[in-house]
Amino acid sequence: MARFNEKRTNPRKTSNHEGGLAFTLTPEMNLYSQVCTASLQPKFYEPSTQAQLSCLRAAISKVDPELVCKLAVYAREKMYLRSVPLVLIIELLKNFNEGNQAGKRDPKLLKKSTTRVIQRADEITEILSYFAHANERTSVKKLGKLPNALKKAVADSFHKFDEYQLAKYNKDGAIKLRDALFLTHPKPLDEKQKDLFKKLVDNNLAEPYTWEVEFSKLGQQDFISVNAKNRAFSAKWEEMIDNWIEYE
Asked: Would the pTM of this model clear 0.70, i.e. be above it?
C-alpha cells in the first residue's frame, strides 16, 4: 500500500449542476463553448436570456481581447451566428470602458472586427440596440457618447449596403437606420451614395422586392373567390422564384 505516493487526481475534475462528473474548462475554451451553444433564448438548463448573458460577460472578462475579437468574427463568418458576435463586441467595449478587461486594447482591431461582424443592414441597429441594453441606457439620449471604435465601424458598415439592402431592413424599431446614420455620420464614397443616404434620411428609399412586401400587397387585394386568390398567390410565387433564379 502506498503511504506517500498517493494516487494522482485530476485538478480539473468537478461536477455539473446535476451532480454529474464534469471537467473545468480553460477560460478560452469556456468562452468558445458558450459562444458555440448560445441561442440567447430560454433553455431548460439556462432559464433566461439574462442568465446566458451574465455567463458570457464573465467569460469575456477572463480572456485576452484579441481572442474575443477573433472569436466574434469567426462566429459571424464561419458559424453564421448573428446575435452572439454583436454581444462579444459590445461586452468587450464595455469592459474596456469600465476598466474590467485585462490585456492590451487595440482600437484598430476592435473597429475592424466590429465592421466584419456587421454583415446585414439590420445588424447596424441590432448592435446599437444591444449597446444601449448592455449599458442600461433607457433615456432619449441612450446612444450618446458611443465608443469611437463602434461609431467608426458602424459608419464604415453603411458603405456595404445598397438601396435594396437598406430598404429591406429599414424597420420601424426603437432605433432606426436613419438614427444610426445621424449618430455616426458616414462619409459618402461618391455622389450615388450621397443620394442614397439622403433617401434614407428622407424615408424615400425604393420599396424592396421581397416576398414579405409582395405578399403583403397581394393580401390587401379583394378577390372574387378563394380559387382566384389561390391562383394569384401561386402566380406570385412562380414570378418571384423565376426572378430569384435569374438574379442568381
From this structure: yes
